[in-house]
Each structure stands twice: as C-alpha cells, then as structure tokens.
Design brief:
single chain, Killer Toxin P4, Chain A, 7-stranded antiparallel beta sheet, 5 helices, 12 strands
C-alpha cells in the first residue's frame, strides 16, 4: 500500500510539474492596440540609419530581458544617422510578460514600419518607440491610443466625478515614486458604493521614467482629460500617450458583500480610439 501511495504521489508531482512546464512554455498573452509609422520621414535599406535602428531595437530588447522591468532606452550611431529607442511596460505586469511584449514590439515595428524613421508600437501591456531624433525627457501628446468599454454607467451615475477625484489623488502620488524600483507607477483598488450599487474601481497611472515629476503630472492630466472627453461613463478604459498611461476597470458587486475577496470580471475593452499628430495633421479614428 505504501508503495502504491508513493507511486501515486510521484505521478501527481509529475503531472503538476508537466502542467507547470506547459504553462511556462506558452507565450504570455499580449494585445495589440495600434501601430504608427511616420510616412513623411523615410530611410533606405542598408543605410547607416537602417543599421543603427536594428541595433538600437536589439539593445532595448536585451534590456527588457535583463529585468529592467518597466522602462529602458538606448541610442546608437552618430548624427545625422543616430537612432533612439525606448520601451515602457505597464508596472502591473510581470517581468516575463514585459520582456515578451517588448521583444514582440521591437520585431513587429521593423515589419510594419519597414522604412520609416519614426515608429510606435502600442500594446495594452507595453509600448515601443524608435526615432531619428532625441525624445528622451520630452513630453508629447501624440500619437496616442485609447481603448474603452462600450458598457457604460447610467447617465444618472456619479462615476465621472468619482473617477476624476480618484485620478487627482493618484496623479499627486505618482511624482513621489520617481526613485522607487517602478518609478512613476501607482496602482489603486477601491470599493465604491453609490445610489444603492457597489463596484470595485481598479486604477493604474504611470509615466515613463525619463520624464521629470512636473512633466509626469502634465502627461497624466492630459491622459485623464482625453478619457473624460471620449468616454467618461465607460466602465473601463486605457489610454497610452508616448510617455504615460492611465488604465482603469470597474467590477460590480452586491452592496452587502462584506469584503473584496477575489474579483473576476469579463473583458472590459471593446472599442479603440486612435489619435495621431504629425507636423500639421491631427486625425481621430473610431474603430
């Protein structure tokens, strides 16, 4: 009997080890949002900039693998053929997902924007950017992408005010985290009860760590205003600007639930807005 139990335990351990290996062998799930290729500024194949771009994208791909969790940047080559690149991962994803997202984005950007000097690749989990001009430390509003739920709060709900107050608090906190391992990153979970309904509000604000605190604040306020302008009653949304992001989701609860426990929700994002600004053109596309 003892032998049988030992054998069964060994089989059980093997089974769970196999499941664990199977899970680890599967790539993390990432969700593409938007690709921007600046068609007004191109380069030729085998040029110095082409070589520098491949090199700088390879460098930030390596940075993400080395555990630079949320942000990395690099520069390659001499003027006028210098290439600059960066990646920004959401602070609430794990290292493996960040590395996979950054790697995927750096590879996809060379396929989708084959000969464009400036390009952005946005995913829900990360963004990658490459350019022929220096942009580190610079606040920019576009291109940006917003994805939001078509499931809305009622017109009588005060969610817009609740969201604004929450964002004001998180934006005030974000600059104070500039020296932490995940700089300019704040996540918050709160239970909200109003008008006989109760829900969980899960919020994330984050800036690229090359910004100074004042520009981080401005970037986040721009992002929040864009959400308020497009979808203030939506039950979930995410906006990615070149140097910051805001993300939130809501999950309904019975009013008399005594504690949060484990909250599981349906997929909240169902529509995407894309805003792109080049030298003199602003386009807004609803998908």
């Amino acid at each position: 009997m003892a032998i049988s139990m030992t054998f069964s335990s060994a089989l059980l351990c093997f089974f769970f080890s196999f499941l664990s290996l199977q899970t680890m062998s599967q790539p993390p799930q990432i969700n593409h949002l938007f690709t921007f290729c600046n068609e007004s500024n191109n380069f030729t194949r085998h040029s110095s900039y082409h070589s520098n771009r491949l090199s700088v994208l390879s460098t930030i791909r390596s940075y993400s693998l080395l555990g630079k969790i949320t942000y990395g940047n690099a520069t390659k080559g001499l003027s006028p053929d210098t290439a600059y690149a960066m990646y920004l991962c959401r602070g609430d994803i794990d290292k493996r997902t960040c590395s996979y997202c950054a790697r995927t984005a750096t590879l996809e950007i060379t396929k989708s924007c084959t000969y464009q000097k400036e390009a952005f690749m946005f995913y829900e989990e990360c963004m990658v950017r490459v350019s022929d001009y220096y942009f580190f430390g610079t606040l920019e509003e576009s291109p940006n992408v917003t994805k939001y739920s078509l499931n809305n709060f009622s017109v009588t709900s005060s969610f817009g005010q609740t969201f604004s107050r929450k964002m004001d608090k998180l934006i005030l906190r974000a600059p104070s985290t500039s020296l932490l391992p995940k700089p300019y990153f704040v996540v918050d979970i709160e239970r909200v009860t109003e008008f006989g309904t109760s829900y969980i509000l899960h919020s994330v604000v984050q800036c690229s760590s090359d910004l100074d605190p004042s520009n981080c604040t401005v970037c986040l306020r721009l992002a929040v205003q864009d959400i308020l302008d497009c979808c203030s009653r939506s039950r979930g949304a995410q906006i990615f600007l070149p140097k910051c992001l805001v993300r939130y989701g809501t999950f309904s609860l019975p009013v008399n639930v005594p504690n949060l426990g484990v909250i599981k929700g349906n997929k909240i994002f169902e529509r995407t807005l894309i805003a792109v600004m080049t030298a003199s053109v602003l386009a807004l596309v609803g998908l």
